[in-house]
Amino acid sequence: MLTRRHFIVTTAAMFSTPIVPAVTGGAAASPSNWSSWDAQVTPAYYDPAISNPWGLNPRFLPRLVETNRNLTSGDIHVDAVARYLYHIQPNGTAMRYGVAIGRGNLYEPGTYTINRKAKWPSWTPTANMIQREPEIYAKFAGGQPPGPDNALGSRALYLYVGSRDTYLRIHGTPLPRSIGSRASSGCVRMVMPHINGLYEFVDIGATAILYPGEESLTARS
């Protein structure tokens, strides 16, 4: 049974050192654009602990927290109730980030494997998204090219079950004010500079556990 209470112990010190976005690696976008796009979405003098031009609740800024030490280093845990993503570290700690999750029943709790990563990816809405909200998604049926306005933002982690792509992603968003809410069509959204920092430390093959949202969690409490 998935519960969210077994792995978080207490909040520890906030990071005070900037996490510098990387600009190398495989992706759909041309590497010649990555540096300028990263600069465009990253605040001047960016410090993940305090930079907040998006007006987020301060609790959604990156923090280092203590964890249950038997968790697997490198795994990701998403607390859908508190709207936190935890990236487990090897020393009994985790980096915690604020996220947005899927609206209503579009959020799909479960255990997934990260089988692909991409910097500045392109994006195409699924057929279900277009059918459900054609006024929003039909214009992107042919795909949306990479860039700061792309729905997947600056980085994306692709969630699989076995060899099957679930079309769920952990990704950056051009709508950072949605962090802390239920806003997406199922994916987990992050502020772009935050996922830029996380991205380099996530390995292909890592596990991502998405815990239930409010209704499911209340039923198990």
Core attributes:
single chain; 221 residues; ten-stranded mixed beta sheet; two-stranded parallel ribbon; disordered C terminus
Name given to the CATH homologous superfamily: L,D-transpeptidase catalytic domain-like
What is the number of beta strands?
12
Question: Roughly what fraction of the amino acids lie in strands?
Answer: 25-35%
How many structural domains does the protein architecture include? 1
Element-by-element helix/strand order: EHEEEEEEHHEEEEHEH
CATH fold type: L,D-transpeptidase catalytic domain-like
Q: What is the CATH class?
A: Mainly Beta
Number of helices: 5
What is the first-to-last residue Cα distance?
Answer: 12 Å
From the alpha carbons, calculate the radius of gyration and give it in angstroms: 17 Å
Spans of at least 5 consecutive residues whose pLDDT stays below 50 are 9-28, 215-221
Structural category: alpha+beta
Could you characterize the architecture of this molecule?
The chain has 221 residues and is an alpha+beta fold. The protein has one domain (8-220): Beta Barrel (L,D-transpeptidase catalytic domain-like). The protein contains 5 helices and 12 strands. The strands form 2 sheets. It has a 10-stranded mixed sheet with strand order 1-2-5-4-3-12-7-8-9-11, covered by helices on one side. Strands 6-10 form a two-stranded parallel sheet. Strand 4 (84-88) and strand 5 form a beta hairpin. The termini are close together. The model is unreliable at 9-28 and 215-221 (pLDDT under 50).
